[in-house]
Design goal:
Length: 424
């Protein structure tokens, strides 16, 4: 069962989904995403033969019974069937178009019921007029999807008797490990980031699967040429090879999707590709290989298309955790997807539990409602964790805080495997 009890919170989530279905499903006008809108304004319209790569969102078909009563395999099959139906209707409508005008479908995303297509800019009005097309957006590039953090020397000196990093010490994980004998065993934690260094001594034999969703690293091999993902992974499951423990849940295992290239950047399609892959790594809904929770130390300005993907994780029973962002102390600076209501958005504090100056603040306005964000804070200033080549670095950012919370959730789920995202 995805939802064990229909609490008011669950009903609120369901009401939000159904209201979106009604508002989008009955809408006659196709939305234009902010990046495509900007491109059209710069070009003075959609005339010309510019070849564009676009994401088009197809209208969802919601099934209340499936959402409330089915388990992971049924929901997964339903979402795939929904996309197949929607994409077939789309293909039927453009079948009569001239060959040179017809869009080419490059990829399908059941995670948010969308398609990656290539087409001429001049055909955008025709696509927008089709039945069942909700919005159109460029497959835009995102420079520095994972923000550059402050670095300290990679040469780490461990203080005498200091067996835990301050982030772990402040969480009192030592007591959980010793008194409850809980270290995260049996819990699968997903990470979408810049990849991972599988050979780091604190991460060795702790990764179930890796997949590169943006460049060309082979599956299940080290694929992090940036370092951000390796650092985050260490905070979740890292050991104590240096003499100081760096990971909150060293008994948990990782599933790692690389959605950030080695320069720290990404693109819209790579994010959707990663969010889809990690929800079903082997592509078979019948096998329970999905993570119990997913740690995300990244964010974007526009959440278009990502809310549906996060909601897919939720109805599949996966707990989403997102960094709140590093846009400073002004109100309303939390980025997407952290600004969405039904997930854990994490802000950063220092070793004295003081809020970090760079940590983004709420509140956020979502679907006309105001929400307090972030939901929680954790260590995010000068956090020591694993770095490329077997070393260690101090980094700062809400990117460093989110993995601490992911580790705590892993401990919670190890202690009580039946916890749902909403109970957490």
């Amino acid at each position: 069962m995805i939802f064990y009890n229909l609490t008011n919170y669950h009903l609120t989530f369901l009401t939000m989904i159904l209201s979106m279905a009604l508002s989008f499903g009955g809408h006659s006008a196709t939305g234009i995403g902010p990046k495509l809108d900007q491109w059209m304004k710069e070009k003075g319209g959609v005339r010309g033969d510019d070849q564009l790569t676009l994401i088009i969102k197809l209208t969802d078909r919601f099934d209340q019974k499936v959402i409330l009563e089915s388990g992971y395999p049924s929901v997964m099959r339903w979402k795939r069937d929904q996309l197949q139906e929607a994409s077939s209707r789309f293909a039927e409508q453009v079948a009569s178009w001239k060959q040179q005008q017809r869009p080419t479908i490059r990829e399908q995303f059941w995670i948010n019921n969308s398609l990656l297509i290539e087409m001429k800019a001049s055909e955008i009005p025709g696509i927008a007029a089709l039945t069942g097309v909700e919005w159109i957006e460029l497959n835009y590039r995102i420079d520095q999807l994972v923000p550059t953090s402050r670095y300290s020397s990679p040469r780490v000196k461990i203080a005498d008797g200091d067996s835990l990093t301050y982030g772990l010490r402040n969480l009192r994980v030592g007591r959980v490990w010793s008194e409850l004998a809980v270290q995260g065993a049996g819990v699968r934690v997903g990470i979408l980031d810049s990849g991972i260094d599988l050979e780091h001594p604190d991460l060795a034999n702790k990764v179930i699967a890796t997949q590169d969703l943006i460049t060309n690293y082979p599956p299940n091999e080290s694929n992090d040429g940036h370092g951000h993902g390796t650092h985050c992974a260490g905070t979740i499951v890292g050991g104590a090879a240096s003499g100081q423990a760096i990971g909150v849940a060293p008994g948990a295992q990782l599933i790692v999707g690389k959605i950030v290239d080695d320069g720290g950047s990404s693109e819209f399609a790579a994010i959707l590709r990663g969010m889809q892959w990690i929800a079903d790594p082997d592509g078979d809904p019948a096998t329970p290989d999905h993570p119990h929770l997913i740690s995300n130390s990244w964010g974007v300005h526009s959440g278009l298309g990502l809310l549906e993907a996060v909601n897919s994780w939720l109805v599949l029973g996966i707990t989403p955790i997102f960094a709140a962002g590093n846009r400073g102390s002004n109100p309303g600076t939390v980025w997407a997807p952290a600004q969405f209501p039904d997930l854990l958005a994490v802000g950063a504090v220092n070793s004295l539990d003081q809020i970090a100056r760079f940590s983004s603040r709420g509140p956020v306005i979502h679907l006309g409602e105001s929400y307090i964000k972030p939901d929680i804070t954790a260590a995010g200033v000068d956090v020591l964790s694993s770095s490329l080549g077997g070393g260690y670095l101090h980094r700062s950012g809400t990117s460093m805080a989110a993995p601490h919370v992911a580790g705590v959730v892993a401990l919670m789920m190890a202690a009580n495997p039946h916890l749902t995202p909403f109970e957490i």
